[in-house]
Design goal:
L-Aspartase-like, Ribonucleotide Reductase Protein R1, domain 1, two-stranded antiparallel ribbon, Arg_succ_lyase_C, about 65% helix, Argininosuccinate lyase, 3 domains, mainly alpha, amino-acid biosynthesis, Fumarase C, Chain A, domain 2, single chain, EC 4.3.2.1, elongated
Length: about 500
């Protein structure tokens, strides 16, 4: 009789509809198999706790630990008809340890808390890999910024020349949010790095478990206390995915700028041949397609994040919706890692043209603000009046299709007399100095401004911040490595002690 095989759990194993296997379970298993070593790690910690608390027979603990230790970090061929990683693990355990021994494996746990623990361990490592990639990119940005802090070019808003800045200032600006993203990663990991094991399905367990013990040997910072929240919480997944998307958006903004810099009209920069695509029909094309790829991935993952948010908007309970969303979380973070690595390559390879960058300044009036500020600082004029004078002069030049060389003392004096009924309170020398783009950048010397001196200071501060963050990451990784070493040490000691007892 069918009922003799047990309950529904036993009856359905290996009998999932083949269409469901082909179109859902199979593709999902192919993506999720990388998580198998983390599952083994969690199960080994759980069995060690069962042994410590004498919850299951010593013989069962010994055999379970032997098999788990032997598996290590290998990823076996998995059967998608068995639904998920855990059922595959249990099936392999039956084959190697026997059904009786394997039957002790589910004691005091559920797939829910095991999966939650596995995800947290995998995610903390994945996020730290993203932090590594961000750190490497930021170092390259710092290097290129230091090289170009005197290379001036127009800063733009809405495609219009706004103010003269330096390329070093621009690149240092790309580095600043990257460091904030690193900080977000560390804060995120510290928030979710708590042990969900012991929550079981959702309400804990009646067995005399030790959750602090499994927390310690899995590198968790204590216990995720509320049992239901431990297995149904979605915020840490969404936060991790959000960080991945934030990084990608920052990279996309850099990529967009570089695409513009590489245009024929700008000519500020060019990429090396190994980072450009050409055209199958237009021989002259040097397309920065790699930058467009980064930009497109940011847009795609932003869409994925919207899907994650929707999938997680379910009742306060364990759900396949969130399980499905997990792969998109991983995809967001993994994509951010990859695009960081690619971005580092093309930032490193950029060939800037200081001559073209400066030349383009003379096609606009980005020194207008400097002229207005000089009227205030040197001429004692109220700013709004100064703004009207400079704005009126430039408007006239626009109408007459004239350029930078015609923005002179005489024209400014004319507009000053018209607006203020007095002569321009600046000498010709002062006007020419204020018009000088290099002077305009150098005068912007308040904290955080575009002057080379300030760029140097900001780069130094960013480097100090990066060093602090990387040291923290290194120390955390050391903690996790020590915890993992302790886990395997305890497992081996237990196995050896059992062998010694039997031999005696």
């Amino acid at each position: 009789m069918e009922s003799e095989k047990g309950g529904f759990f036993e009856q359905i194993q290996g009998k999932i509809n083949p269409v469901a296997v082909k179109y859902y379970y199979g593709p999902r298993m192919e993506k999720a198999d990388r998580s198998f070593p983390y599952l083994v790690q969690v199960m080994e910690a759980h069995v060690l706790m069962l042994a410590k608390q004498k919850i299951i027979p010593e013989k069962a603990c010994e055999k379970l630990l032997e098999v788990l230790e032997a598996w290590g970090k290998d990823i076996p061929d998995l059967d998608p008809s068995l639904e998920d990683l855990y059922i595959n693990l249990e099936q392999r355990m039956k084959e190697q340890a026997g059904e009786e021994i394997c039957s002790y494996l589910p004691v005091a746990r559920s797939r829910n808390d095991v999966e939650a623990a596995m995800w947290r361990i995998e995610l903390r490592e994945l996020l730290y890999q993203l932090a590594d990639a961000i750190g490497d990119l930021t170092k390259i940005l710092h290097q290129r910024a230091a090289e170009t802090k005197y290379d001036i070019f127009p800063g733009y808003t809405y495609g219009q020349q706004a103010q003269p800045i330096s390329m070093g200032f621009q690149l240092a600006g790309y580095g600043a949010p990257m460091l904030r993203h690193m900080e977000r990663i560390l804060e995120c990991v510290d928030r979710f790095n708590k042990n969900p094991l012991g929550a079981a399905a959702m309400s804990g367990t009646e067995y005399p478990i030790d959750r602090e013990f499994t927390a310690n040997i899995l590198g968790f910072d204590g216990v995720w206390e509320h049992a239901a929240d431990a297995v149904v919480s979605e915020d840490y997944m969404m936060e991790a995915a959000n960080i991945g998307v934030l990084v990608l958006i920052a990279l996309a903004r850099q990529a967009e700028d570089i695409i513009n810099w590489c245009s024929n009209e700008a000519g500020f920069a060019d990429l090396t041949d190994d980072l450009i695509d050409s055209s199958s029909i237009m021989p002259q094309k040097r397309n920065p397609v790699i930058c467009a790829t980064v930009r497109s991935q940011a847009r795609i993952m932003a869409g994925r994040y919207a899907g994650i948010s929707t999938a997680c908007s379910v009742g306060f309970q364990a759900s396949r919706d969130m399980t499905a969303a997990w792969e998109d979380v991983v995809e967001c973070v993994n994509t951010a890692i990859g695009m960081c690595r690619i971005s580092a390559e093309y930032v490193k390879a950029l060939r800037f043209s200081a001559e073209n960058m400066e030349k383009i300044l003379y096609k606009g009036f980005s020194n207008a603000t400097e002229l207005a500020d000089s009227l205030v600082l040197e001429g004692g004029m109220p700013f709004r009046q100064a703004h009207k004078i400079v704005g009126g002069a430039i408007s006239e030049l626009f109408r007459e299709k004239k350029g930078q060389e015609d923005l002179n003392w005489e024209l400014l004096d004319k507009w000053c007399r018209e607006i203020c009924r007095k002569s321009l309170p600046m000498t010709r020398e002062q006007v020419e100095k204020a018009k000088n783009f290099h002077v305009a950048v150098e005068r912007r010397n308040c904290q955080g401004a575009a002057a080379p001196e300030q760029v140097e200071k900001m780069l130094e501060h960013q480097k100090e911040c990066l060093d602090r963050l990387q040291k923290y990451i290194s120390n955390r990784r050391k903690q996790w490595e020590e915890a993992d070493t302790e886990l395997h040490k305890l497992a081996k000691e237990y196995i050896e002690s059992r062998h010694n007892e039997i031999s005696v």
